[in-house]
Write a structure and sequence with these properties.
transmembrane helix, single chain
Length: 173
């Protein structure tokens, strides 16, 4: 019998509160990092335009749209999977189960991958080089502030099951 089930038998009201208090501790919604970085890149582009041409304009916009559509598609698949599993995408709520199927067979962070597709798609669409220049800092913040906390929480919450999953599926792709 799992530890949580034992606790439910002995302390039925207290366990729910105890389990739901445990969460990754990421208090800033991760999409806000992408939005903030992209907005900052637009300000930089406005004030310090690099003047470097991208692709020919029609190709550039087409590629940008394709990347954005991929991002939306992956994001929707991820959200649907969260809804079906009754897990929350809110990073200050606890997980009921470990996501390992669907898009999670290919990436441990498909929602963040989808946001990167949107970020880069929009950058290409508008020809904003600053988005690319800032992207390593965005990756670093996502890794250190968001993903490391989430992984620590998942190890604590799901133990061996998460360790096995982590060995078999890459973080991004």
């Amino acid at each position: 019998m799992a530890t949580t089930e034992k606790l439910h038998q002995n302390y039925p009201g207290q366990v729910d509160a105890q389990v739901h208090k445990d969460h990754p501790g990421v208090y800033i919604p991760p999409p806000l990092f992408y939005i903030a970085f992209f907005y900052f890149s637009l300000l930089l582009e406005h004030d310090f335009a690099l003047g470097i041409g991208f692709l020919r304009r029609p190709n550039q916009q087409f590629i940008g749209w394709v990347l954005c559509l991929i991002g939306v598609g992956v994001g929707l698949m991820t959200l649907i999977q969260f809804i079906r599993s009754r897990n929350s995408i809110v990073t200050i709520k606890s997980a009921h189960s470990l996501q390992t199927s669907g898009v999670y067979r290919y990436s441990r962070n498909p929602l963040y991958v989808s946001l990167f597709f949107l970020y880069f798609g929009a950058a290409i669409f508008w020809g904003n080089w600053w988005s690319f220049i800032l992207s390593p800092f965005l990756v670093m913040i996502m890794k250190l502030y968001v993903i490391k906390r989430e992984e620590k929480y998942l190890r604590r919450r799901f133990g061996k099951e998460y360790k096995l999953y982590k060995k078999s599926v890459r973080r991004w792709f």
